[in-house]
Specification:
Layout lengths: L3 E7 L8 E6 L2 E5 L13 E6 L2 H5 L4 E5 L5 H4 L2 H4 L7 E3 L1 H11 L10 E3 L6 E3 L2 E8 L6 E8 L2 E5 L17 H10 L1 E7 L15 H11 L4 E4 L5 H13 L3 E5 L1 H12 L24 E5 L9 H6 L13 E4 L8 H13 L3 E3 L14 H11 L1 E7 L3 H13 L14 E5 L4 E6 L4 E5 L5 E2 L1 H13 L1 E9 L4 E2 L4 E5 L5 H15 L10 H20 L4 E8 L1
Parallel strand pairs: 3-5, 5-6, 6-7, 11-12, 12-18, 13-15, 13-16, 14-15, 16-17, 23-26
Antiparallel strand pairs: 1-2, 1-19, 2-3, 4-21, 8-9, 9-10, 10-11, 19-20, 21-22, 23-24, 23-25
Helix pairs in contact: 5-11, 6-7, 14-15
Length: about 550
């Protein structure tokens, strides 16, 4: 018998960017392919995707990609991977529709093959037997994924909670999860996002009463912002609007696209008599309207962000409007969110967040739900994922409390290779993994060095030196000139820096004058040193050199 390998390329030791490889001999499948969001210091970066180097080096082995659900942190990087590989995507009807709508925006991705992912019906991909299992989350048709290998079953929980009163009335398949535990689960790869939260998560259905109370008491329009893929939350907004006699509209391209698609596919129940196209909003009194809007994460071009800047053509935020943030901030987005909120307050709006108001619940289970998943599935090995190191370590401590042997749990980092044979499992190797930063145009990779330069530019500006150098006499011809932008230094300081540079040039070694490029490098190093000595600043330094 051979070796089974599980390799997280994203989503392990972090929240977001979920992407895991499962290999057996010459066959490989991928579970999910998502994005995460940059931190504020990542200037000019729009999204972060996994490093696909390992997949591309082994593309001949790849048999397919399984999608657990349609949230961006699980499917958002597909367009980048599918530029390089051509394999089927296995997805539920809703996940397929949402993913296809995004892929078709890219001309070269219109002919991607989708295959069904039927809950409770096993099927084969190469040597693997796949069985999706229904679990509740904040979007319909979320599935745990059972992958049976030659050494046993690997069970990915996907993002899950055990919601006993789900919005769509479709509960997790407790019976099948328990049966799998009785049949034997070799490895449980589990969501750990809320393992540090005691007890049981609140039901998504509880949000409706909080929204209803706000809608009832608001004197003007109510704008609700959440993720565009948060379909259960959209339904709660519709239900609360109907209960309080308000009409519903949608602003934001992706939110409207998902809303209409889910309405047509019957995943959203929206009575015709309460839906208002956004171009007709001005025909209604303010106290009759609820608007779903994009922008819960402070995205620059989202509808709510544009409204906060007075740039959204179809609607202006005015005194008396109420803005409801029905979403949790993704780490790294807090600055943009608060800037938007402050602008909305300045426009006279009232802004309600989920602090103390039941307008948001998590889609991830708390400690008791994770405990129940473990008790039902009775895994031999466990690897907590979809969490930062603090979540993984909390999970490890929970396993200790449950009596799970320490040598049968694995805290994996992205790139770790977990190998399993008929006798044991161990972390055997590490492959290339990490962050790939994508700019706002969606077609350029931002490198580490580029990010460092952008950070330096943002912090200390740029300092440019222009010099003519005689390579024979190894000296400047005339006095070099300088230009700076964003660099804090008075004329005297800059004069001193340039004098230091002229004196320093006389001490350059002979090999420094071997070429214009060599001179440029020496000048930049010397300039950085002198600038820091004089000003304690570290601007980007560029030398423009001509030789005679």
């Amino acid at each position: 018998m051979g070796i089974v390998r599980l390799i997280p390329l994203g989503g392990s030791g972090e929240i977001g960017k979920n992407c895991t490889v499962v290999e057996q001999d010459d066959d490989m499948i991928i579970v999910d392919c998502g994005i995460s969001f940059p931190h504020e210091e990542h200037h000019g970066v729009d999204i972060v995707i996994p490093d696909f180097t390992y997949i591309l080096e082994n593309r001949d082995k790849l048999r397919g990609i399984i999608l657990t659900h349609a949230h961006e942190d699980h499917v958002g990087a597909l367009s980048f991977l599918l530029k390089e590989v051509n394999v089927p995507l296995y997805a539920s009807p809703l996940t397929e529709a949402l993913v296809r709508s995004k892929l078709e925006e890219r001309v070269h991705l219109k002919d991607i093959e989708f295959k069904p992912l039927p809950a409770g019906k096993p099927f084969k991909i190469g040597p693997f037997t796949i069985e999706p299992v229904r679990v509740t989350h904040s979007i319909p048709e979320t599935h745990a994924i059972s992958i049976t290998t030659e050494h046993g079953r690997i069970l990915f929980t996907a993002d899950f909670k055990f919601d006993m009163n789900p919005v769509d009335r479709i509960q997790s398949d407790f019976n099948r999860l328990t049966e799998m535990g009785d049949e034997g689960v070799l490895l449980l790869v589990s969501d750990s996002t809320n393992v540090d939260q005691k007890g049981w998560s609140r039901s998504e259905s509880e949000v409706e009463s909080g929204l209803e109370s706000i809608f009832k008491n608001a004197e003007g329009r109510v704008l609700v912002t959440t993720f565009s893929s948060q379909i259960h939350r959209m339904q709660q907004v519709v239900n609360a609007a109907k209960a309080t006699g308000r009409y519903v509209s949608v602003c934001g391209r992706r939110m409207d696209q998902v809303f209409q698609m889910c309405r047509n596919m019957k995943y959203l129940s929206v009575p015709d008599d309460i839906y208002v196209p956004n171009e007709d909003l001005n025909k209604y009194k303010h106290d009759e309207i609820v608007v779903l809007v994009t922008g819960s994460q402070g995205e620059q071009m989202a509808a709510l962000s544009q409204m906060s800047r007075g740039e959204y053509s179809r609607m202006k935020v005015v005194q008396g409007d109420t803005i409801v943030y029905s979403a949790r901030a993704i780490p790294g987005n807090e600055g943009g969110i608060w800037r938007t909120i402050n602008r909305l307050f300045k426009l006279g709006a009232d802004v309600i967040t989920d602090y103390g108001t039941p307008i948001h619940v998590s889609g991830h289970g708390y400690e008791d739900e994770i405990r129940l998943m473990y008790q039902m599935t009775k895994p031999f090995y466990v690897a907590p994922v979809h969490g930062e190191p603090r979540h993984q370590i909390h999970f490890s401590r929970l396993l200790d409390d449950l009596g799970h042997p320490g040598h049968r749990k694995f805290i994996l980092a992205n790139g770790d290779v977990l190998q399993i044979d008929e006798q044991k499992a161990w972390i055997a190797d590490k492959v290339q993994a990490g962050d790939v930063w994508i700019d706002q145009h969606g077609n350029a990779v931002v490198t580490d060095s580029c990010l460092r330069q952008r950070t330096a530019l943002a912090n200390d500006g740029i300092f440019i030196i222009s010099a003519l150098i005689d390579t024979d006499d190894q000296c400047f011809v005339g006095k070099p000139t300088s230009y700076s932008s964003g660099f804090v230094g008075d004329n005297d300081a800059i004069e001193d820096i340039m004098d230091d540079l002229i004196k320093g040039c006389s001490r350059f070694k002979t090999e420094a004058f071997s070429s214009a490029e060599a001179i440029k490098n020496e000048l930049e190093k010397a300039a950085r040193r002198f600038i820091y000595h004089r000003t304690s600043q570290k601007p980007v330094v560029i030398a423009v050199v001509q030789t005679v």
